[in-house]
Amino acid sequence: MAVPLSSQLINLFAALLLLIAFAMLSQRRVLSLINLYALQGLVLALSTATVAYSTHQEHLYYSAALTLFLKVLLLPWILHRLIRRLNIKWDVETLLNIPTTMLLGIALVIMAFNVALPISQMAGTFTRATLGIATASVLLSFLMMITRRKAVPQVIGFLSMENGLFFAATSATYGMPMVVELGIALDVLVGTVILGIFFFQIREAFDSLELRHLERLRED
Amino acid sequence: MTHTTGILFQLAQSIGVVLLAPLWLGWVNQWRAWLQNRKGPGVLQPYRTMGKLFAKDAVLAHNASPLFRATPYILFGCMWLAAAIVPILATDLPFAPAADVIALVGVFALARVFLSLAAMDVGTAFGSLGARREMLVAFLAEPALLMVFFNASLISHSTSLTTIVGVLAHRQFALYPGMAFSGVAFAMVLLAENARIPVDNPATHLELTMIHEAMILEYSARHLALIEWASALKLLTYTTIGIALFLPWGIAEAGDWGALPLSLALLAVKLCFLGAALAGLETLSAKVRIFRAPEFLGTAFLLGVLGMLNYFLIGA
Amino acid sequence: MRIALFPPIDIVLIIIACWLALGLLSLFSQRSATPVTRWVMPASALASGALLAAGLFALAQPPETAILPLGLPGLPFHLRLDPLSAFFLVLEGGTSFGISLYSAGYFQQRTPRQLGILSLEYHLFLASMALIFVADDAYLFMVAWELMALSSYFLVTTDHEIGEIRAAGYLYLLIAHIGALGILLCFGVLHGAHGDYTFDSMRAATQTPFWATVAFLLALFGFGAKAGMLPLHVWLPEAHPAAPSPVSALMSGVMLKTAIYGLLRVTFDLLHVQVWWWGALTLGLGLLSALFGVLFAAVQTDMKRLLAYSSIENIGIILVGIGLTILFHAYDMGLLAALALAATLYHALNHAFFKGLLFLGTGSVLHATGERNLGRLGGLIHRMPWVALLSLVGVLAMAGLPPLNGFVSEWLMLQAFLLTPSVPHAYLNMMVPIAAGALVLASATAAYVLVKFYGVVFLGQPREPRLGQAHDAGGWERAGLAWLALGCILLGLFPVFVIIALDNVTQSLVGQGLAASASAHGWFFLTPVSPARASYSPVFFLGVVLLVVVLTFLAVRRFYHGRLRRGAPWDCGFPAQTARMQDTAEGFGQPIRQIFEPAFKMTRQLPSAFDEHPHYAVSVADRFWHALYAPTARLAERISGLIGLIQHGRIHLYLLYSFGTLLLLLFFVR
User: Fold this and answer.
1) Which one of A158, A200, C153, C207 counts the least CB within 10 Å of its CB?
2) Is C431 in CB contact (< 8 Å) with chain A?
3) Does residue A3 sit within a domain?
């Protein structure tokens, strides 16, 4: 079977996304986490551009450019600034040890692939195989949010989950209408800014960004 | 090709690999030296070292058993066998059906177990330390290695190296993310199994960081020379397995004598490049603590598994 | 052929009778041990050899049956010798031949009285196992099963003066009976029409999927308890070290296989359908057992406990094979099922040989040094070269290294694993390869364990001065060891013959054989599916390595020299080297303890800087014991406490109970 090059490229990007999701899952340092997030954005932008090129859909180019600007440049920059200001470049503590998390991750991937299999077989697009990977990235990001103690990695997990969803959208349906994408982009941006403000508030209140401190719900 | 020429070719290949293995090690070391701003001893240095060692009188500990003396020869024999099985120039090797990739792993395991036992034979603190660490790295590396082979066999429906190479070399060119993952995993296993940085340091004699060197501390003269030779052979064999799995293009088909020169030239180019790449990789990374090795090899396993899952999803 | 004059099943019965007679005979020798060791044991070995021959012959024959007019009136014993039984008889005969030879030397130091009883129990044990393999009805099977459990219990408690051994025996008996209960219930579910308990009518009856599942789960539980499957394994590391070494070898080599036999018999012969998830379950439990066993083996400090844990590992590998077979068979993939089954049986046979060999090897070490603790051994290769050499064969075989036998079965198993992507089930497709990774982890860790075992016991310097007086094994012991080592080598070098011999077994169980495809390339190359898929030639393998070794040796002598000087060990120039500085068993296991820490329940006692007598101690316990067994034991105790309430010691009350029961029964039965 001759698979067109663009399709191969998208498969490659999908695989890279999965790899990055795992790398994020195993990463101990906040700084590298942000860099990985930026890399994920870059791969996403590239894959969107590839889809745009192969299907000749103009608006996907804009979408790719938006991804590039927002997720590779702006958000990482904000996050970098944030951790510099908060002075939290040190290692992130994880709730579960890394190998266990990895094994859980593999189990999630297997589940995601199997869940996505029937859906993607119905879908007619040539990028259907990537739906499973998109689902897996979403689940892995979720797992990352669950296993981190600190607030900043959780936010990055949230952001990378959005990346996974975005990838699902481009690969399964060739992207959403531009308005929706713009809306989501704005949401993410505002969300990050608000969360950034929250970080400062949390730290002022507790002297630390550990989410443990938020577990006490009542004042006593 | 008739049977006799096949066997002759086979013999020529294995002898060639055995004789050239130290040269390639020299090439890697030379690149390491260059990358670290040293002049380097030249690519022929391993031969000189071995020549010197062969000429010396062997010194053996009082309580060394026959196992200790036999091990260097067994090691060398195992590596020779491995070198004879891996297809590097052409896919038809009459001896290749003797062992597939899994059996090849078995060959390496056999050599490793003998070396570890020999390391414990004299009963020094370093010997058993090295044996313990070597076996540790090995049992963590083997699952990752199997995942890599699993991936290759998924594509080629075979575990026989000649078949794998035949299928991989002649299929349509395409991007195979699964194979890329496996390739990285294989590279990590190669570093770990051949006592290279970041798992072990071939140039160290610091007691706390040694693995391979700690095992062979008690060896001297011809025994040591054989072990060094076998190690060089192992490194080259691993690399040629890597070439066979991930860069098989240009290998000569069965009976196609005309393609041999091209295949040979390509092999030389690949080896030169990979030697430099290996040296670069080693220069760029730092040796990790021994208890970080599980994480390193766990990552290799993960990559292997991801490559395999990719195959199921994407079909590559 | 001469042997054809007698049907093999008669020969088997004669051998069983011989064993019983030998056992009884040895009771008469109260005054001297010599008759037992000099005549009874070698005769018993001869019987084992005959069993091996009969089994080999019967492997190629169609099934034959016999009826023994023994047992309860109207319920004669049914016997049947089919290829599966024959295979396990071969396993028993081959292993026990070596073990009995060895016992002839090993038991010489026992007092005559002890020896008489020991020999009786030993032969009862052998006979009951053979009887299990040929039983063709549930009654005989259970009778033989209980006989095996009891005789082995008495063998385990041979040295019953020691409290620990009594405790181990008790635990063993308890779990054996819980398991037997499972088997009994399984046969109850399977019974044929009109409450008929012969296997024939069980075969004829068809089960609904629900009851078939119930029967399978009961069988897995019951036979799993005997095999040492997780989480029913706790008796194994206690009972095996407690028994005398030849008995440990028999228990580990043959007795555990009776459970494998039973599981195969129920799953593939008595039940007609298989459901895929049975296979997944068995595979999962097998993997857990394999990993658990090998990790615990790595941290043991007692030779025999180490081997016992490694038996759990090997049983795990065998269960993995059974799981794969069920999986393939459930999806009607005959050839692959045959491959997995052949790998399973092959591994069972291999395990019997190498584990028997190693247990006997530890017996010789124990005899020579009186020491089972790895921390007090070392350097025995100089004092006991024969035992060391033969044990090396066992170690290499068990570590799964080519060209010995352990490698062949693991290789076949991996080949079966590599074919799982053709299973039409997406989840399994993706999960099973990872299971293969876990299996490789287990077998590679086994190599670690065996380097530790061999290195600490036989290599290095003696850790105690009195090890210098250790003596090598005697002639009988050597003969037994050599037989088993020879078995390891031959089974490793000529796998094609084994596969051909297994053909009838796989034909009868999964309806397809492997012989045609495996021997397509002649006996030289083993090609389980097709030559293009995979091939392996151990003879070639060994040939090349040996040739290169010899040529290298000669070349070095020819071109250089063979000069040699002896000196003190170098050890990086450290002068004050003592035997105490070598790795202990604890030290060698330390990386495993560290990496797999969550798997163990560890208690450490670390010295502080101010201790007058610094002391380090670490003990590793089984989490299952605390999580599963201790609560169960407490529960049982509480319940029995409640039941104890009705016990008053007053005879009137007891009579009242009986009376009440009688009335109740009369009321209900009418």
Assistant:
1) A200
2) yes
3) no
